[in-house]
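Tokens for MotA/TolQ/ExbB proton channel family protein. Go.
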Amino acid sequence: MFDFVEIGELSVFILLGLASTLAIAVGIERWFVFSKREGKDPDSSFWGISEGLESGDTESVQRYAIESESNAYNGFGSYALKVFSSGTSSKKELLQSKIAEEKGLLERRLSILSTLGNNAPFLGLLGTVLGVIKAFHGLGTLGSSGAEVVMRSISTALLATAGGLALAIPVVILNNYFQRKKITILGNLEILSLKALGGFSNPNSNHHRSGSQTGSAVL
């Protein structure tokens, strides 16, 4: 039984190390994804696309969309142009599907950070409990002469709790940061969707004027 306790205590430290590595890898990967989806100047992209969609100005939307479709707002503007040029009656549904697609992309692997942040303290606590069991076993075996060994065991056991908390705190902060970014991006896309539906439904929009003049409007 005591051998299993020692193995369990060692396994906890190994798992904490692996969890830390995983958290760092996911954090870096998500950082690049969110940076790419926001672009270098997210405010400029959002307001540029927003004004173009609201007024039904296809040229304005195209100017921003052509810069970089990896930017969530530019990509959404480009997709909106395709939706309205298709003549489909399901414009609202298609725009919402694009937002849902973006949500899936942004939420990918965030559950890993959430799981690690919620469970790392418990994993550390398990290591502490196993370490305390080991310490008391040593105290019962060695008696008062083994006090030094027992204190070292307890000290090591408490390191597991400290390690769990040291992992959980930054992971929770990082997860909350990405969640806030996700909510901001999706909220802005909802705004762009509403402005597109309103702007291109306006008979006085640039979209309709250019279509009547040239007969070959983009939309």
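Residues 147-199 form the longest helix (53 residues).
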